[in-house]
Design brief:
The protein has about 450 residues and is α+β, with helices and mostly antiparallel strands. The chain is about 50% helix and about 10% strand. Helix 8 packs antiparallel against helix 13. It is globular, with a radius of gyration of 22 Å.
């Protein structure tokens, strides 16, 4: 049986029947039609915490016009993400939200089809590839930071998003972004924001119309580069993916285009979220800025080698603690492809199932004083994160565990290495960042900070 036939056979397992009622599971579906969509968009963490307090760690609900079940805690995370029986579909869960925006991205594939495409994509994130990115990434970041204005309010989100887009375009596309940089950046913003569009009609001015317009621009931009990349020997992933498409078979130009759009989104937007959160936490806790700068200066080097990354131990603690408190993706959805049992409850075929890294990361059973920024909880002496393999999961787990977890840490450490040895960062006294929690954690106000030279 061919790969495509196997993928089609497994896709056929995805249910096409209406979901049966989940009568025995506690919870409620909220307002007619809307359900809990408004509180979900306003403050997801507060919503899920309130529901857990009221109903326990298994409950039903409704958001974004979809009824489903939420399973909370490390055991639930393992049950859904490890999925040895292939009972949970990522595609069927994400497609209603992302199908037209990030078509056939790796997150929107399942089973044999997902395994085949993941094997090709993971070449971009193996150690030799990561090591090859480091020098170019470091040089670009170091050359751009001196142009950032000091002594006056600076919207960190805008600056880091533009910087990381340039880095991603260079690393993955082999491009130096020119005049099209702003258009590409805005297209990604519009496409991502459209995932939360309530009215999905092509009406000018609405989220969905802007998102689809952004998607079409990205498709044209990436597709236009494919002929050149097929004949290129440049050391970037785009060229390698085009070659793999020829060598592996079964990978069309459209597959290549879809993967490159999703790759740049995943590497660009999630690291933007992560670095915004890290800078915010460091601005609120300046003593950690000084500790990290001292650690970096202790290496006695102007640039990092790959083996130096592991020596930045405290920087790693801050990276992990920030992702505990502010994981970019706060919830992971799946949909059952067959009836499954969990803790005495039956989840019928075609049930939408949500798990929550954000909730898990604040569970007092696993974390001491979880609302306190305490990077040392990740030290070898304390190792709070090692009580359960699925208690810290900003990158997910199981078959769909994020391929870019090591890339995200590498990129974050390189940025912080150059930034913290050059600048101190602060926010106004009493400032608390207003945060969008879905689809990605992002500052709503652009994260106004002030940077000063050390």
């Amino acid at each position: 049986m061919s790969r495509m036939e196997t993928a089609q056979q497994e896709a056929a397992l995805l249910p096409r029947m209406p979901q049966r009622k989940l009568r025995d599971i506690p919870g409620n579906y909220g307002w007619p039609l809307l359900g809990d969509t408004v509180p979900f968009l306003k403050d997801y963490h507060s919503l899920v915490t309130t529901q857990a307090r009221q109903y326990g760690l298994v409950f039903k609900g409704s958001v974004l016009f979809q009824r489903g079940v939420t399973l909370l805690g490390p055991e639930a995370n393992e049950f859904v993400l490890k999925d040895p029986e292939h009972a949970f579909s990522s595609r069927a869960a994400w497609n209603p939200i992302l199908e037209k925006l990030f078509t056939d991205g790796l997150m929107l594939r399942d089973f044999a089809d997902h395994k085949f495409h993941r094997r090709i994509m993971q070449q971009a994130f193996k150690k030799p590839a990561l090591a090859s990115y480091l020098g170019r990434m470091s040089h670009h970041i170091d050359s751009q930071l001196p142009s950032w204005n000091t002594g006056e309010p600076l919207h960190f989100l805008d600056h880091i998003k533009a910087l990381l887009l340039d880095v991603g375009a260079q690393i993955f596309f082999g491009l130096e972004m020119g005049p099209e940089a702003d258009k590409v950046n805005q297209s990604f913003i519009d496409t991502t924001e459209a995932s939360l569009a309530v009215v999905r009609l092509p009406i000018p001015g609405l989220l969905w119309h802007r998102g689809m317009k952004g998607r079409r621009y990205l498709e044209d931009f990436v597709t236009g580069l494919i002929p050149e990349k097929r004949n290129s020997d440049t050391p970037d992933f785009f060229s390698e993916l085009c070659k793999a498409a020829d060598e592996e078979g079964g990978l069309t130009d459209r597959d290549v285009m879809n993967h490159m759009i999703f790759l740049l989104f995943a590497a660009h937007d999630t690291t933007t979220s992560t670095l915004c959160s890290i800078i915010y936490m460091l601005a609120k806790h300046p003593e950690w800025q000084d500790m990290l700068a001292e650690e970096m200066q202790g290496l006695g080097k102007a640039t990092l080698d790959y083996d130096d990354l592991g020596k930045l131990e405290k920087t790693g603690w801050v990276f992990r603690e920030t992702l505990r408190m502010r994981p970019p993706l706060t919830t992971f959805p799946r949909r059952t492809v067959r009836d499954v049992e969990y803790q005495g409850y039956t989840l019928p075929k075609n049930t939408l199932v949500n798990i929550s890294p954000l909730f898990t990361h604040y569970m007092e059973d696993y974390w001491s004083h979880p609302h306190t920024f305490d990077p040392a909880r990740f030290s070898d002496d304390r190792a709070e994160h090692k009580q359960h393999f699925y208690q810290w999961l900003p990158f997910g787990g199981g078959h769909h565990k994020c391929l870019g977890l090591n890339f995200a840490e590498l990129q974050s450490k390189i940025f912080l290495f150059h930034f913290l040895q050059r600048y101190r960062v602060s926010v106004k006294p009493g400032y608390e960042v207003p945060t969008q929690q879905v689809p990605l954690i992002m500052p709503k106000d652009g994260l106004p900070v002030t940077i000063e030279k050390r």
